[in-house]
Recover the amino acids of this structure.
């Protein structure tokens, strides 16, 4: 398979989303990404706008149900044909939280790239509002169950074809939770444990490496953190595209 460039980016659903989405669409149109996995596009109007803006550059798209909100807020765009996709909800029923309404889960998309197949999984798991990922923290039990569900879905994919899973896992790369997920899924961390933040630091918190790229064992891949700088948006202001940075992978 030729090299495939994949971007994962949490778009941030609030704070002037439409003006930022327009700027993001312009950035992607000029990029060399073959596949783009986006999170937090759960507002249908924002989803529709962004899809209209990116249809020429990325003619193929996968997503779950779009109403009343876009399932999981997930959208996967591709320059290569999509031959199949499915959406699996991973969020647990308890405790009650916003993620239940959003139906957070994983979007699994199978692509045909120059006669070969590649499966890309795009996910956004529940946020730990206290940023406490210690073993005794109550919410880590919720995250552990979601990660176990994600690992199970990834194991269902045909093992004879390469798999790439990306997204906002909402657990740090150097945490016991992520280590457990890697063991359960059998996939490899392309960042190789590098804990450099993918969330823009804020006063009182330096951020964490919450956005991940994992691949089938033996699959050649490199990864980097991208989309860190401000851009000029259509209203003439300088803005960050999101509260997250992007993570980009080169496969093959």
């Amino acid at each position: 398979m030729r090299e495939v460039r994949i971007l994962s980016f949490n778009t941030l659903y609030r704070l002037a989303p439409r003006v930022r989405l327009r700027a993001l669409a312009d950035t992607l149109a000029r990029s060399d990404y073959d596949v783009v996995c986006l999170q937090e596009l759960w507002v249908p109007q924002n989803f529709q706008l962004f899809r209209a803006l990116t249809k020429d550059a990325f003619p193929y798209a996968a997503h779950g149900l779009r109403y009343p909100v876009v399932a999981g807020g997930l959208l996967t765009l591709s320059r290569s044909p999509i031959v199949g996709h499915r959406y699996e909800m991973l969020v647990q029923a308890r405790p009650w939280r916003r993620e239940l309404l959003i139906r957070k889960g994983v979007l699994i998309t199978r692509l045909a790239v120059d006669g070969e197949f590649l499966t890309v999984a795009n996910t956004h798991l529940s946020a730990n509002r206290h940023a406490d990922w210690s073993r005794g923290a109550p919410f880590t039990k919720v995250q552990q169950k979601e990660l176990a569900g994600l690992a199970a879905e990834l194991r269902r994919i045909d093992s004879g074809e390469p798999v790439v899973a990306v997204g906002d896992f909402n657990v740090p790369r150097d945490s016991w939770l992520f280590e457990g997920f890697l063991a359960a899924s059998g996939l490899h961390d392309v960042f190789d444990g590098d804990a450099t933040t993918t969330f823009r630091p804020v006063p009182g918190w330096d951020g964490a490496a919450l956005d991940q790229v994992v691949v089938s064992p033996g699959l050649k891949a490199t990864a980097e953190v991208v989309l860190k700088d401000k851009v000029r948006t259509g209203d003439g202001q300088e803005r960050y595209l999101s509260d997250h940075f992007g993570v980009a992978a080169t496969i093959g």
Notes: The chain has a mean pLDDT of 96. The helical segments are 17-29, 44-54, 98-102, 138-155, 176-185.
